[in-house]
Amino acid sequence: MIAKIGRGNNLHGALAYNQLKVENENGKILFMNKMIETKDGKYTVTQLTKSFEPYLMANKNTEKATLHISLNPDPKDQVSDEKFVQIAQDYMNEMGYSEQPFVVFKHTDINRTHIHIVSIGVDEEGRKISDKFEKRKSMKICRNIEKKYQLLSATDKEFAQNEQIFSPVDYHSGDVKSQLASVIRNIANYYHFQTIGEYNAVLSIFNITSEKVEKVDGGVVKNGLVYFALNEKGDKISHPFKSSLFGKVAGLDALNDHFLKSKEIQKASSVNETLKAALLLVMKSKPGEIEFKKKLKEMGINTVVRRNATGRIYGVTFIDHQSKSVWNGSRLGKEFSANSFNQYWSVDNNSNKQRNDESRNDVYLNNFEVVQSKQPHELFNFLQDYSTNIIAEFGSILPESLGEDFDELDFENRIKKKRKLRKPKS
What we know:
By secondary structure, the protein is an alpha+beta fold. Among the domains are: 160 residues, BirA Bifunctional Protein, domain 2, CATH 3.30.930; 93 residues, no CATH class. It has a 5-stranded antiparallel beta sheet with strand order 1-3-5-4-2, with helices on both faces. Strands 11-10-9-13-12 form a 5-stranded antiparallel beta sheet, with helices on both faces. α4 packs antiparallel against α5. It is globular. The protein starts with a strand and ends with a helix. This is Relaxase/mobilization nuclease domain-containing protein. Pfam families: Relaxase. InterPro entries: Endonuclease_MobA/VirD2 (IPR005094).
């Protein structure tokens, strides 16, 4: 079992994300500890928040008081709701949070059924509960829970991060080819995308772009792909690198296969409905473009906007880091298409000026606009450091967007490799 602990100051966001799953029938509340309950068993974010308010009011000095924890058994473990509740109680008790209000949500929208726990890190007298050696303590508790409930074991090595697989390219640090390779060779293993445009939307976050080129081979014209490193302004700052330098996985044939597989996976998934619900939830408040992107980022979703020379939007792409899927807005529905957002964000000249001023904090990559926060590429920095500092910067919304799915996939891949090695020869 793998545990991820998120800390931040966005209690409402953590509750809203989980409640959204419940409302879309992709999750449910399994258990509540020291929470105000309703007669009909139905809850809203506002109602759930009331249970935490006295704790937050007692301590206004602790900035990152919200706890958002995800507990993830191996996908092959068959865990009943009753056992999930017992696991959650054992975990919170051993971590020192048994007297805290907390709510346990079960998520079922992906093939890895798991639970999320939302709680608070300060007690009823306003004192911060110690989080010293939290990671080490959590790992030990997970190992004990695995033994107690006969779950498949994940050794501590499964928690070790891969060596900077998803680091944005820094041209000044040298060895650009190796930096490009670390992203290009791995990105398709974790993200589902159906077009080159969606592929580039993900690559842009890592200061990379790809371009199609034509080449003549034996008198036959064939399409190929080259890659470039980009600077913080989105300008190409490297010579083109042939896709063959990074292996077959980086070429058009492999990507076309990936597009088809992604189409089947996304077609069979309900992730798009959850994503659409999140977009509509944000759009209800009619935020401007900057605020729209900021709110979605708090939910683990990057918004990539493509504009032509006149500033008109001709494409919008959403990168959902929770489900590891990429969606062009028009594939989600007309209300999320480029034309819709052109109308949605139609503003007067003064507002346009304000948007341009605010956009100084944005980074433009090959016509892809990716909002930056204080820590650029924060949604991926966890592979170098998934400490509570990174999690807090993200607002403690989605623990799994900070590494949970990657750890699970790495764990599954290791298990598969072990089984292949052990398989007797016929």
